[in-house]
Write a structure and sequence with these properties.
The complex is a heterodimer.
Chain A: E1 18-22, E2 35-41, H1 44-47, E3 54-59, E4 62-69, H2 77-87, E5 89-93, E6 107-117, E7 163-168, E8 171-177, E9 182-185, E10 196-205, E11 208-212, H3 220-227, E12 234-237
Parallel strand pairs in A: 4-6, 11-12
Antiparallel strand pairs in A: 1-5, 1-11, 2-10, 3-4, 6-10, 7-8, 8-9
Chain B: E1 18-25, E2 29-30, H1 41-50, E3 56-62, E4 65-70, H2 72-80, E5 85-92, H3 98-110, H4 114-126, H5 131-138, H6 142-150, H7 156-164, H8 169-176, H9 180-193, H10 198-222, H11 231-245, H12 251-272
Parallel strand pairs in B: 2-4, 3-5
Antiparallel strand pairs in B: 1-5, 3-4
Helix pairs in contact in B: 1-2, 3-4, 11-12
The chains are: A mainly beta, B alpha/beta.
Chain lengths: ~240, ~270
Amino acid sequence: MSLGSAVRGCGNRVKGGIYAECGLSANGRPIEDFLVDPPAKVDAQALGLSDIGVKLVQVNGTWNVLDIVGQDSYPNVADFVEEVRRFGLSRRLPRSLDFSKLTPESRIILLHRRAYIENFDDYYEGNVVDPCPKNLPQHDWSAAPTPVTMCASLWWSDVQGGVNESWASGLRTVTRRMPSFEYTAHPRPDGADPRYSLAIFASFPIHNLAVIRDRDGGSDEEALQAASHASLPVNLEDE
Amino acid sequence: MIDYPTEQLALAPEAPVKAHNRKVPLRRIVVEGATVEQVDRDLVDSIRELGVLEPVILQQVEADVFEVIDGRRRTLAAREAGLKSIPARVVEISGWLGQEVLSILLNEQRGPNPYSELLAIERLMAAGKTERDIAKATGMDVATIRKRLKLTRLIPELRANLETGVLKVSLAEQVAVLPEALQAQLSEKWTVSGKLTSADIHAVREVRQAEATAPLIEVIAQTPATTTRGWHESVTGLLKQAIDLIPEDEGWAWTPLVELSHQLQAAIQEAAS
């Protein structure tokens, strides 16, 4: 199945572009299984991470793709998670990447500059937040009201750019409109002044690579050539 | 006459730099960016014996005040040697901060001296010039300017060592990209062992890399390697739906499904362990 039909937060896929994909399936695991909770802060400098492009990092003998999801296209972590929930994962990889390092065991590990909220406990002051998306016992605030680590549920409780604010079940709620869908979440609580850190928020296996067909006589041949060095299926897809 | 490149000096003087040779009293010369402690005793002895063989380059900044563009150590050594004056080429520069630009150009001609270049670049930037301005005025490429500016990330102890030449530029460039805590660690190690080598920097980097990779190991362990559920899990879900639909008093249908569900869950738990 092509994952390219929907317009994503980062726009349409580019002709001749190479994309790492993780598709949807009726028999698939819920997206929550792939979320990293609590989000994992990283030493971006030591890992050589940059906001542009991706970085290959070897862990226990397997090369993985580290990719910072840009705030320009996805200001909220929830924007990206909800998009993947609906359309599957598709992330562009640079043609210059050493694709020969990618194997079926490789993961695409996603980071966001707003994934970790340092002062997360401020969000619980007088507010009710959504339950932990991974149902972690340590994030069951009714049982343990003093938070020890940040819970990924806050990604849906600190949403910027929402519209149609209303109240539902005692929570302030907004509709967040993305190019191809919309979802419901909660705006930042009054008085919260978040301090964010770059952190890993999700990790997905890479099912296949997709090269977007260029019917204008273009660059998909070179892209196919580059992608074929990976030990992963490579599909030529229409945008 | 020094052959200063002028074609790219849009920010430096448009006319070629004029210079004249003369002897300048040492008391009229201001030396910035160097101290007597940095002057080699051999240089002082040599100047005492032979005099200053190569003229220093000075810029006249006021009626009777000159600043050193090139030859700070020679000027200080001449003072130490007890000379009253020094042979100099006095250049006339107009335009913004010509001295720093000229300093970089001189380095370019002579073979780069990264630390002097850094000082000149810092002064130009402090005066509001951009990397591009400096590149245009000096002919130095922006990548080199950025490389020099990386040295500003050195912690003060290490920068002081770079300034005195104890810390080699090649090592300084490797250390400057490390976080301050690791630089402090290396500086401390240097104090204790009396030396700093590439191997020391490499070892610190290796430890840091291992620490940086640790969260990734946890992330990979925490998230599944496949996106599809095993058939056990899928069937368990379907069985649960079926069990919910069958009334409990229809035991002939309900009981075997519940037993099968328990067996499957046991199998899943066993597989997981």
